[in-house]
Amino acid sequence: xxxxxxxxxxRWRERWAESGRYxxxxxxxxxxxxxxxxxxxxxxxxxxxxxxxxxxxxxxxxRRLQGDNVLFPIAWHVTGTPIIxxxxxxxxxEQGQIETLQDAFGVTESEFSDLETPMGYARYFxxxxxxxxxxxxxxxxxxxxxxxxxxxxxxRYSKFITWQYESLRDRGLLQKxxxxxxxxxxxxxxxxxxxxxxxxxxxxxxxxxxRFRHGERVVPMATLRPETVRGVTNAYINxxxxxxxxxxxxxxxxxxxxxxAGEGWLVSEDAVRKFQLxxxxxxxxxxxxxxxxxxxxxxxxxxxxxxxxLPASFVDADNATGVVMSVPAHSPDxxxxxxxxxxxxxxxxxxxxxxxxxxxxxxxxxxxxxxYGEIPAxxxxxxxxxxxxxxxxxxxxTAELYQDEFxxxxxxxxxxxxxxxxxxxxxxxFREHHTGEAFxxxxxxxxxxxxxxxxxxxxxxxDTWFLDYGDEAWKAxxxxxVGNLTCVPDNTREQYNHTxxxxxxWPCIRNYGLGTRLPWDDDFVIEPLSDSTIYMSYYTIAHLIxxxxxxxxxxxxxxxxxxxxxxxENAEVVGVEEPREPDDRALELREEWEYWYPxxxxxxxxxxxQNHLTFFLFHHAELFDRSQWPEGITVMGMGLLEGESMSSxxxxxVLPGEAIEEFGADTVRFFLLNSAEPWxxxxxxxxxxxxxxxxxxxxxxxxxxxxxxxxxVEGNTAGEMSDEGPTVELTxxxxxxxxxxxxxxxxxxxxxxxxxxxxxxxAAFYKFEEQLKWYRRRADLDRPGAAWTLREVxxxxxxxxxxxxxxxxxxxxxxxxxxxxxxxxxxxxxxxxASDRIEVREQLVEAVTEDIHDIVDVTGTDPEQIRLYVAPExxxxxxxxxxxxxxxxxxxxxxxxxxAHLREKGDVVNELVxxxxxxxxxxxxxxxxxxxxxxxxxxxxxxxxxxxxxxxxTVEVIRAADSDDETADDAIPFxxxxxxx
RNA sequence: GCGAGGGUAGCCGAGCCAGGCCAAAGGCGGCGGGCUUAAGACCCGCUCCCAUAGGGGUCCCUGGGUUCAAAUCCCAGCCCUCGCACCA
Length: 981
Description:
Blueprint: H1 5-19, E1 31-35, H2 47-65, E2 69-71, H3 82-91, H4 95-104, H5 118-128, H6 133-140, H7 155-170, E3 174-184, E4 189-190, E5 196-198, E6 204-214, E7 217-223, E8 234-237, E9 242-250, E10 263-268, H8 269-277, E11 280-289, E12 297-299, E13 306-311, E14 323-326, H9 332-343, H10 345-350, H11 355-359, E15 367-368, H12 376-384, H13 393-408, E16 410-411, H14 423-434, E17 439-445, E18 450-451, E19 457-468, H15 472-483, E20 486-488, H16 493-502, E21 505-507, E22 509-510, E23 517-518, E24 521-526, H17 536-539, H18 555-569, H19 584-596, E25 601-605, H20 609-623, E26 632-636, E27 639-641, E28 644-645, H21 656-663, H22 665-674, E29 682-684, H23 686-708, H24 732-753, H25 757-778, H26 784-801, H27 806-817, H28 836-859, E30 865-870, H29 873-885, H30 889-897, H31 900-903, H32 907-921, H33 925-932, H34 936-942, H35 944-951, E31 954-959, E32 977-980
Parallel strand pairs: 1-2, 1-25, 8-13, 20-26, 25-26, 27-29, 30-31
Antiparallel strand pairs: 3-4, 3-19, 5-18, 6-7, 6-17, 8-14, 9-10, 9-11, 12-13, 15-16, 19-21, 22-24, 23-24, 27-28, 30-32
Helix pairs in contact: 1-27, 3-5, 9-12, 12-13, 15-16, 15-20, 16-20, 18-19, 21-22, 22-23, 23-27, 24-25, 24-26, 24-28, 26-27, 28-33, 29-30, 29-32, 30-32
The protein binds one RNA strand through strand 3, helix 13, helix 16, strand 21 and helix 20.
């Protein structure tokens, strides 16, 4: 009977589907609710996703075996733009998109037309294509209640989201305000990171604009280090670019912008659009080349000093305002640029700048910092040996000095009230202090950003609705929810708290995308992270709510459902003043919700702690009672494929379907769970998966041997295994294996309670294999007792392994007992079978076996006769003394020497005491007590047959006291002297 | 910088929270043997150094410390990985 996973797995899948095995409804048993993020079907399912969903499945299966009523549901997240973007790219037949679809996910050209609408595309990857999530999940044998599926684009789900956002608005947690967004200047639309060709890593940077003056005009210069304003020695402008003079006024409600109406600004032409996008009205008055300004002077708004404007081709007119200030004392860039300007008289003259004036420019230090001289930038540049602005190392040197100055630079006396303070402490206050007349601000990306359409992307400030995670009262509730939580692994707790601390305003709407419209403004759609914060509650009623007409799913309906009749009738729901009539249907559904909630465990990726998981806590803490707050979050690690990160677009993925076809679902599951704990990163390597497959095959073969060994065991034939205990005679070694089995049960259980799927499967599978190996060597297997023991061991292990490898274990368990493992209950460790005594005794046999092996190896002999000398009674007496007196050699000697018959043995006793003290130290009380009760002679005598087999020699066990052999003197308690001949 | 995690034998990787049974699980690779006409698969043994009697030496990033005892606890340092958002 060969191992044929395809055959076995197909049968069980069909059985589960037909019987609705994992459909869960409220019952008397304890409810356990396990959820995992609903997949986002913007592409197919790969092996990394497979693990994400298999980890909670193992836990779900474990809890079911423990007798819980377990709900493990799934749905589909389609909100937002990625699917729309994918469809657009497909329609344009973009090469990359076509390749991803065909190569990574096996979509055929004839199927393309099905994928050309967003929901068509989603449906394909939800359930149609070979790489669809549903196919993958069913193949893996996930124990999902499929009745509860929905998508986040469903009308009823949208009503649920509407309820949430109205509630949050009424609680004052949804606010309106301006926020920076990525905006494509070609399409005139906000864009998401997924829409970018370049600049995926770009960050929004808030620049301070230093409002230099040129006569009546303002010349704003952008900087990230406003405190260096007193160190400005000159400005740079690009002589080859176009600049403008424009009137600028503040528009909209941007409180940060301070430009007074109609003020005249001098900026690059490219900057105009940036300001317009950032809530300013800009009207160009005249255009002129940069050369026109070069050679002029501008006035520093803080110091009142006049500084020259020098020409510089390195100035990027498309970055910020196109005019930059130079702080050569603290910016290595500026320092080197100034050196170059000084060296290039001809160029200065060309632009009408007197080289003599340039020569007089001296770096002006504004701070002091340990480890650098008066002019830190000069030190940094000279140490690195940089003498050109083209030197690639200059960037690193600049970054390093900025870091150092930020964290340990202290402002000089010229800063008055700010003098002596560290930059990191003082920067914000200094900026605030000057904001208005001297400082303004603007946003800019940290690097160039290009849209997929080829258009340039700029920072735009847009009016938006945001979730106010900065609200202190809300933060406090969220922290409370963390306190309530079982975090796996435990060290993630701090990360949640940290995230709660720094989360601030979160813009929760977008201009376009799939999903739910903002209830009071149809132009906007609620973005994906914001519509998935409490959806787990929707699972509890998802299969029943279809019976309720959409239009009846109003505020009262969901308020009734989640807050109950009393709260509705008494107008206790925040934001609703009127007492209302509770909705009857909602009250029925409320029972479902109350049965399943709270979420027992949410399994999710560790990358989601910073947003989704913390949002999940925030929203539960606000919208639901404390008793419905999440009880646990288990966080999962990332996957690698052959040592490299998976990537659908590069085709570097393995599909579950392919892997299951090659290895079988049990192998795929076992590998994914066994190669690392859930929260650790794992690496899918084909070679190792094959290994796992081989191991399962071996397991299968051994199990079949046990099944087929129908040596007549009274009352224990197949189909009649029970918890009744042995009906045949068991020997010491049988009992030893059964005792080890109890430890295995305990370890596996403890590990699964902690979500340690790796430790659990290691204990139940690999570690126990080691015990079996010894048992097979040690035991006479042709006994009814051995057959019974092996069957009992198999029956228990099949149940322990059932959460991990459900197909093979159910199949074997059914063949063994008549029923599947998943219906047999989780094994409990039997105290009757767990025996320290037996294990301690067996350890002595293992030890002596190992010692004989050592001697044989070292000497290279092949003994024909082995003699074991058991330590004499007086040595046992000394052992007893050590046990009683403790591990203080002096004290033991004192006691021992009181005995005349020991005293006369002299030094030998001293040595023995030393040995025994070491021996006792390493063992605990219980073990020593068991040892004290041991009759060594009989133990080795009982193991004689085994030892003779093992070494192919005759074995004699002799009392050392009865022998003249000198070797016999070496015997110490629990370590017989060994003589080989 | 802030936050989190980590550095273990040729490689991968357990152990560390709860110090001793740790020359340190398991796997891979390597070596030897068995089975086989042969190869593969499978099975057995070995795989830090020394050693012809169960022994000794050195070892878990580096340097200190605590302890009878440290891979494990404490301190300092070096190096590495991940996240830092408005994106699923």
